[in-house]
Structures are given as C-alpha cells and as structure tokens.
Amino acid sequence: MGNREDLLAGARQVILERGVAKATARDIAAAAGVSLAAIGYHFGSKDELVSAALTESLGTGIGDAMEAVVDETAALPLLEGFAALFDRMPEIFAANREALVASFENSVMVWRDPAASRTLAAAMQEAHLGIVEVLRSARPELDAADVDAIAKLEFVLVQSLGLLWIISPDSLPSGQELARAAAAIARDGGRTEA
C-alpha cells in the first residue's frame, strides 16, 4: 500500500476505535505509519481524510450490501424489489453500525468546514451515481430519468433511515410499508385539489 491507502486505513482504524471527534491527525498518521505532513499532501486536511475514509468504508459496507440485494431482487417487480431492499436495511445498518455512527458524527462536524463539506458533498454525489449504476444494470428496462429518480429516493431513504436506525432501531418502517406508501402516491396520479 502507498501512503494514501495507509492513511485511509489508519483513519478508519482510529475513527472506529475513538470516534470522529477524538480522532486526531497525529493518531491517524501514527496508525498509518506515515508522517503527519502526508495528511496535508494527500488530502489537504484531517477532516477531508476522515470524510474520504468514511465514504470508502460505507461505500464498501452499505453500498455493496445494497447492490447485492438489488441484484438478488432484479427479477421481481420493481416495487417488490424496493420493499425487499428496505426490509434488509436494518440488517445492513447493523453490520455497519460503527461506520454509520461515525459518518453521521462526521457530517455534523464538517458542516463548519467548507473544504470538508465540499468533499462530503462530492462523496454523496458519488454514492448517488453508484446507486444509478446498480439500478441501470439490474433494471435495464427503466429509462434514465426513472433510474435517476429511484436512485435519489433510495439515497435519501437510506440516509434518513440510517439516522433513525441509530436513534431507535425498532421504529423503522418496513420495506412493505414504504412500498405501500409509494404505490398509494403513484395511484393518486396527478390528481390535484381544485
């Protein structure tokens, strides 16, 4: 591994052991076995390194698990596949608990750091595009606008349900409930009040 990869691994290790707030640049550099200056050289700041490490960790953990469910359910009708995905999210969140908690902690911390906020925003866009790729592959019958809209809905639901799961795991709606709501909204069509 090179210094960049070592820093990402060191950051993940320190974050999972101590949390984002207590992860110092010095601790991360020590865990990575590199100089403190390497953080600035490769990432610009500790906050940007932390965002990159968490994005990579969650992309691998949560993103790969979601992709597997989407692939497994590709033969089902779209709404059933959607329900199956969100029925599995509590299990996926549980398998990635520490990284999920650290990610939310990091989101609040970077709010005041414009550079780290831009890094996180770019990572969120990358996550959305990752969902688009998975859906495009699993559901080739969908047009590009539908794939994009579904990817945005799934991304928003995963983010909000992840936070809800951290706070109160038993209060998550089931995938069936979410699918029923989506179907009811679709049945309503374009009706508007006169």
Distance between the termini: 64 Å
What is the ordering of alpha helices and beta strands? HHHHHHHHH
**Residues in helix, %:** over 70%
Number of strands: 0
Q: Count up the helices.
A: 9
Instruction: Return Rg in Å.
Output: 19 Å
Return the structural class: mainly alpha
Low-confidence stretches: none
Main beta sheet strand tally, sense and closure? none
How much strand content do the residues show?
A: under 5%
Shape: elongated
Average pLDDT taken over every residue:
88
Seen as an oligomer or otherwise, the chain set is single chain
Protein name: TetR family transcriptional regulator
DNA-binding region: 24-43
Domain HTH tetR-type: 1-61
Organism: Microbacterium jejuense
Would you summarize the structure shown here?
By secondary structure, the chain is mainly alpha-helical. Helices cover 79% and strands 0% of the residues. The longest helix has 27 residues, at 46-72.
